[in-house]
Amino acid sequence: MNVQLIVFLPLLAALVAGLGNRLLGNLPAKFITTGALFASAALSWPIFLGFMTGDISPYVVNVLPWIRSGNMIVDWSLRIDALTAVMLVVVTTVSSLVHLYSWGYMEEDPDQPRFFAYLSLFTFAMLMLVTADNLVQMFFGWEGVGLASYLLIGFWYKKPSANAAAIKAFVVNRVGDFGFSLGIFGTFLVFGTVSIPAILEAAPGMAGSTIGFLGMRADTMTLLCILLFIGAMGKSAQLGLHTWLPDAMEGPTPVSALIHAATMVTAGVFMVCRLSPMFETSETALTLVTFVGAATALFAATVGTVQNDIKRVIAYSTCSQLGYMFFAAGVGAYGAAMFHLFTHAFFKALLFLGAGSVIHAMHHEQDMRYYGALRREIPLTFWAMLAGTLAITGVGIIQIAGFSGFGLAGFYSKDAIIESAYASGSNAGGIAFMVGIVAALLTSFYSWRLMFLTFWGKPRWAASEHIQHALHDNHHDRPADEHGDSSHAKVHAPEGTGGYHPHESPWTMLVPLGVLSIGAIFAGFLFHGPFIDAHEGAAFWMGSLAFDEHLMEEIHHVPLWVKLLPGIVMIIGFLIALQAYIRNTTIPARFVGQFGVLHRFLLNKWYFDEIYHVLLVRPSFWFGRLFWKRGDEGTIDRFGPNGAAALIRGGNVLTARLQSGYLYTYALVMLLGLAAAATWAMAR
Amino acid sequence: MNSLGFPILSLMLAVPFVAGLACLFSSANGARWIALLATFANLALGIFLWDAYQIGGPQWQFVERAEIFGPFAWALGIDGIALMLILLSVFLMPVCIAASWTAIDRRVPEYMASFLLMETLMVGVFVAQDLYLFYLFFEAGLIPMYLIIGIWGGANRIYASYKFFLYTLLGSVLMLIAMLWMVNVAGTADIPTLMAYDFPPDAQTWLFLAFFASFAVKMPMWPVHTWLPDAHVQAPTAGSVILAGVLLKMGGYGFIRFSLPMFPEASAQLFWLVMGLSLVAIVYTSLVALVQQDMKKLIAYSSVAHMAFVTIGLFAFNRQGLEGALIVMLSHGLVSGALFLCVGVIYDRLHTREIDRYGGLATNMPGYAILFMLFTMASVGLPGTSGFVGEFLSLVGAYEANSFVAAIATTGIILGAAYMLYLYWRVVYGVQRNADAAAMPDLNRREMAILAPIAAVVLWMGVYPESFLAPMSNDVGLLLARIERAAPSSDSQLARTAAPATPADAEHGSAH
To answer: Between the CA atoms of B305, B311, B314 and B317, what dihedral angle is there, to the nearest 10 degrees?
Structure first.
């Protein structure tokens, strides 16, 4: 019963708040949705802890039959195992904290019930996704979170940029879903079922078989895994299908924290882990997963180093960390992938909510060039962001000869991924290892760059339009003024506060920051045993993913330099950022002057958007107009009905009269036909 | 006589017919009430029919038969497929009457009479068991539609009804000739008998093409679809609802009732004709929908794309495809009907279908925004709505039949999302560009009462489609048993050999 409550309470709350809306008022809507989420979270943790102690074994709760068509049997059901339990706590915990945070963040928004209803609706869809026992229900959750993401990115629906970003998110995800759908169809064709346990059981037996697809013969399991993985790439914003994620920052910041950092975007990683026994049957598919993950980790990290919008830096950081999770899965370290997913949810939600708190204090200025010296103005936010930064960069002391180490969340999870890539011994793993090291350096650099620009140095906010607005018009600008991409013309903001002093956020926003800080500090230390330890891990996962005990044992025996390298590059990244943004602040400008082309290439995100626009968006509209004007009107109508009309017009009086009364003509022809039929029938 | 002890099907034909006559002799308001009561009475009869229908009982239920003369007979009876389409028709009729309550103020009695006559003829199509009777209902059903477009339509209604006429005429003449030949050869006009009659394969091809000419226009399939956007644009709101909701389903019903069971070999032989036209339709009309400026035209083009999912499912020759096609038909009937009603709601306020005249309606019409969003999502096939169940099953079936078909058809889910969300953005989101659009009031009670039940059924069909699939599954099984012998072989054969298989091996590989 608990499981049903966990999943359906958020749905119920969403319906009440959404349909009640203005009738209900702000406060009841907030109480209902937030209360439901805290209840869900409170029910989820015992399940997770139960799997850790081994008190609970996996089970499935059937809710309702869904689709029954021959051997296509799909039920609404909730599957609970260790993998689901991990996702349950991640989703409900972050979601409940984000609900609470939004009390403060959305305080002045006129449309609060709608916002909270969308948040709860999202949570419901995400919970349906992670509890899915079959591929079709997973697809339901998959599309459901896509809908919620669309609604929330476009929450401030008056802004054209928000609408464009919302549609982009939905449509790009649909491109991924195109692969996912074909993957489901193909899986059903091959296995005759969409039930995940049944597929995973039968998958090894299909290894080595081939199947026809688009005129080719393909290895069955490779084909299916790649099709499904295309779906994962869309949802998790992997290279090629990543373009929607940075734009999704148009949504309110709590949304970015919940959906575009902690939960929804990790659904692709979850999918690969859930189907890991299937992926294990195809070496080719796993290699692809590794390469795509590694490429994304590197690509997004490079772009993240030059962005000026605080949310965009964190968005690219998310994209990059998702790449880490994928290449972990690709080298077979599913436990490490899930572990990074778990810790990342805490520290990335923390970073986003911290950024939200900064944005809140700065009257919705998001451009870091107009920040500076905020350390003293908003100290609690600063400490929380610092915890997040230490966690993402992976600060910690390794265990040396009897002396037990300690580190923040990322120290355990990211290092485990990098070490697994090395230990896997494959070529792809080797490349992923090197990419992981470089990306770790970049991660440290852009994270500290963000910290230094925001919290250190001299105040530079006097020139910010948002601050000017707040000072002179003496009006509270609403969160709706938040903008996704800062594109101020000036590169150098003059120093000075302009007489404005940022204020710390209300307790509703600070409490979630505090809780997540604790998570970011201790989640790695407390939970690395069950997630990645060779023996504890096997007992914890209980087959809910393809846990490789051997690989997890191997990572303890990698050479010392492999263990130390992530820490060393982390320090190098920190030192570069320190040098460039604290010690000698002219370095960035000189760098831009010297490597202008590279800087523009990175600033424009490798020109993906421009290329897609030219190759896909514009031709679609062009073909649409061509088919409409030249096809339908210029050809079909011209030679079809209009041509016939012209013929009739040129004909004699009789046809002209026929033309004037189609109805009578029609009735006449029909009756004549029936009369002919009757005559024929009687004559026989 | 049937198990109920009274001729329920004849009654369902008689109620709207008699009410239609009564309308002609009453005042405008009287006609409205007569029409509403009559359509509700038929809805009640329809629900009673659904309840009385025995799932797993005889194939044809509630059978009535009265010989007229020669091969002509008043032969009525339904199977599960017809049952569901009848329910769709009688469900949409009260909605149409209510939607026309204030929008139509000219020649109301005649308008209501036309709608009631149309209901008789629509139900007639689905209950007829005699070939000629079917033909009569099938073709005569268009007459009230002509009247509705031609009298109560928009400015360019004459051109629209002319196009409609021209396309339909050619198809129906060919179909009639084929029917005459069939009755002559088989010696009966009884549809159930003909469904089991094996026509010689070479004759099947011609017969198939003759029927195809009629059904393809009704569907409508590319390239004989260009009458639909014009007809929709000119028709009054309720006319569009019936056109999209029920009349377009007659083509699909024709394929299920005639083309597939009567000419299975020809259906298989012309697999690529049907699939090719459907695939072109999905990509072509979706792109055309993307660039439309007129709301009704956009939805009309989207209908052509959605109907292509029906033909793809039907000609997949497997259960998922057939059942998917049927659910797409039901779902599209509800969803496109609802979308046209949504257009009607704002058309009634501003008297324009121009997309750019609206914008920012979420601010002044929040209730409308929610319902429009739901139907938009159902149209793009979001799981949990009726649109998904149909599209999903139909594509599963298509993949089983041929991977090319499935891969191209599945691009429809991307394009569909693009044009529908683009429409929604321009109408409901954004800033309020025009003062008159910004001043429009939200849905009134009547409009809410029209849209809310459709929304409820859309969700019901999306969450628990079993209520709708169960009555049809037996009939789909019977149809499958008849056509499976002709099913074209799939290109996705599985070869379970450890060694790399060559294409030649695949032919002999152990089939799935």
So the answer is: -110
**Cβ partners under 8 Å of residue A371, min gap 6:** A310, A358, A362, A365, A453, A454, A455, A460, A461
Average pLDDT along chain B = 88
> Do B180 and A680 count as a contact with CB atoms less than 8 A apart?
yes
Distance of CA B398 to the CA centre of its chain: 20
CA A303 – CA B188 distance, rounded (Å): 75
| 8 A C-beta contact, residue A637 and residue B226 | yes
Inter-residue contact A167 to A106 (CB < 8 Å): no
> DSSP secondary-structure letter at A251?
S
Bridge pairing between strands A406-407 and A72-80: unpaired
Interface test with B, best of A628, A659, A669 (most B CBs within 10 A): A628
Answer whether B418 sits within 8 Å of A171, measured CB to CB: yes
Residues B411, B413, B419, B422: is their CA dihedral positive or negative? negative
Higher pLDDT, A464 or B38: B38
Per-residue pLDDT at B512 exceeds 80: no
d(CA A442, CA A445): 5
For residue B511, pLDDT beyond 50:
no
**Does A486 have pLDDT greater than 50?**
no
**Other CB atoms within 10 Å distance of the CB of residue A145:** 26
- Global pTM reads 0.91
**Structure tokens of A475?**
């009006």
User: Does the CB of A185 have a partner CB in chain B at under 8 Å?
Assistant: yes
Determine the pLDDT at residue B503: 43
Q: CA triplet B389, B394, B399: central angle to 5 degrees?
A: 130
Rounded to the nearest integer, the mean pLDDT of chain A is: 86
Tokens of B442: 């939200």
Q: Return d(Cα A338, Cα A315) in angstroms, integer.
A: 20
The answer on pLDDT for B227 being more than 50 is yes
Instruction: Find chain B residues with C-beta within 8 A of A186's C-beta.
Output: 399, 403, 492
Q: What are phi and psi of A73, to 5 degrees?
A: -115, 115
d(CA B250, CA B228): 14
Compute and round to an integer the Cα radius of gyration of chain B: 22
pLDDT at B162 over 80: no
Nearest residue to A155 (alpha-carbon basis) of A329, A18, A295, A354? A18
Rounded-to-integer distance, Cα B69 and Cα A193, Å: 53
- C-alpha distances (whole Å) from A256 to each of A128, A507, B474 are 20, 20, 49
- Strand A210-213 vs strand B494-495: parallel, antiparallel, or unpaired? antiparallel
**Number of A:B CB contacts under 8 A?**
254
3-state secondary structure of B68: strand
Mean pLDDT, residues A224-248: 92
In a 3-state reduction of DSSP, which class is residue B207? helix
User: Distance (Å, rounded) from C-alpha A355 to C-alpha A386?
Assistant: 11
Biggest CA-to-CA distance, chain A: 108
What residues have CB less than 8 Å from A5, skipping those under 6 apart? Answer: A39, A40, A43
Q: Which of B145, B355, B371, B414 to mutate to test the interface with A (most CBs of A within 10 A)?
A: B414
B482: left (phi over 0), alpha (psi -120 to 50) or beta: alpha
The full set of domain ranges for chain B reads 270-496
| A179 at B interface, C-beta within 8 A | no
Q: Measured between alpha carbons, how far is A272 from A430 in angstroms, rounded to an integer?
A: 21
Taking the C-alpha atoms of residue A379 and residue A455, their distance in angstroms, rounded to an integer, is: 9
**Residue A442 Cα distances to A64, A266, A299, A329, B109, angstroms:** 48, 21, 10, 22, 76
Residue A308, C-beta contacts closer than 8 angstroms, at least 6 positions apart: A367, A368, A369, A486
